[in-house]
Design a protein that fits this description.
The protein is elongated and about 70 Å long. The protein is an all-alpha fold. Helices cover 75% and strands 0% of the residues. Helix 1 runs parallel beside helix 3.
């Protein structure tokens, strides 16, 4: 039975895809503004991994499940739209994670370069402190915090989130794409 919400679902997809596109633009701008260094150093390794992850995410196609025609066209459309909402939510979720990791690594690179430029050569202790700050920031980037941040931003913006997938569904979607 059609519920009359397919237009709202389609609008939600557009919002999610727009957020995803914006995140991808921010990721590429952040990566372009950092001079890459020795990938043996954790921050530069994170930047390289993030660049690869962002490219892989962009290249990945939609992988929805086949939908059996179980009734009216509006019902089939509803099921398809829900799958696309899940895919768009998952992509935005992954892009947000990549963006947060890039931002943390960029701060690391800036702090490191600032330290070296101020003193000519930074002490091992000072560099370790900057490395530790990076690790703390990366450890604070959890699936739960990403999901919560995105949900709060959507709610503050007054967006329709009634049928947004829960974190567990996004994690299942993400895991199914890794195989």
């Amino acid at each position: 039975m059609a519920d009359g919400l397919n237009d709202a679902r389609a609008m939600r997809i557009a919002e999610l895809i727009n957020d995803y596109r914006t995140l991808q633009l921010h990721i590429s701008q952040q990566l372009a503004s950092v001079a890459m260094g020795d990938v043996q150093q954790e921050g530069f390794r994170i930047l390289a991994q993030s660049s690869t992850a962002a490219q892989r995410l962009l290249a990945a196609g939609f992988t929805g499940m086949p939908i059996e025609d179980q009734g009216s066209n509006p019902e089939m459309e509803k099921a398809q739209l829900r799958q696309v909402v899940l895919d768009a939510s998952g992509r935005r979720f992954q892009a947000h994670r990549i963006y947060l990791r890039v931002a943390a690594a960029k701060r690391w690179a800036i702090n490191r370069q600032d330290l070296i430029s101020r003193f000519g050569k930074a002490s091992t202790t000072q560099l370790r402190e900057i490395d530790q700050i990076l690790r703390q920031e990366l450890n604070s980037i959890t699936d739960h915090s990403i999901f919560s941040d995105l949900r709060q931003a959507d709610t503050r913006a007054g967006l329709w989130v009634a049928e947004d997938p829960p974190l567990a569904a996004i994690q299942l979607w993400e895991n199914s794409r890794r195989t």
